[in-house]
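Catalogue entry: protein

Sequence with per-residue tokens
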Amino acid sequence: MPTSIGPSKDEIAKLTDVQVVALAQQGKEAAYRELLARYERPVFSLIFRMVRDRETAEDLSQETFIKVLNNIDRYSPDFKFSSWLFKIANNLTIDHLRRRRLNTISIEGAPDAVTAESARATSIVVASGDESPLAELESKELGVSIERAIAQLRPEYRACIMLRHVEDRSYEEIAEIVKLPLGTVKTYIHRARHELRAALDDVR
């Protein structure tokens, strides 16, 4: 059971994730609250981009943090806490997509983005250069086509593409989050880009 005895809120706010998790593993309630404060919005934003429904994203976010709370003792500092957290969020979201077969996604950013700057910060960002098949398709008028193309990807491909181009995660981090070999992640992203390129040929 969480306890309230321990470092103050301000003291905990200065700690690293690993240090905060260590306190949470000791049952310190303030540590749980700090982790929630740090990651509630990033987790919600990632899930929302996957399911494109605020209520569903809120439910899955809540479920994610409940699972984190219930399994906090299983976390190992050998891994980044954020990767462990996103892995849980990703697994829950993928399971939901498989059950519901939801096929909508947004390139417009998270629903809580109230300014143009925050919308850009939470929208799909496609890296420039030869790496991305979307580089020449970033203009606003093609947005709907891009949304539809991404929506048709398998949930696993979609998750990898989102983590790569929205969360700007490395291949190694993605592999850790989706719990797949590094080679498989690279293959998924390559195939996803190929499918996107093929789907978007008609609007070039």
Q: What stands out?
A: Residues 14 and 89 are 25 Å apart (CA to CA). The first helix runs from residue 9 to 13. Residues 1-107 form a domain with the Rna Polymerase Sigma Factor; Chain: A fold (CATH 1.10.1740.10). Confidence is low (pLDDT under 50) at residues 112-122, 124-131.
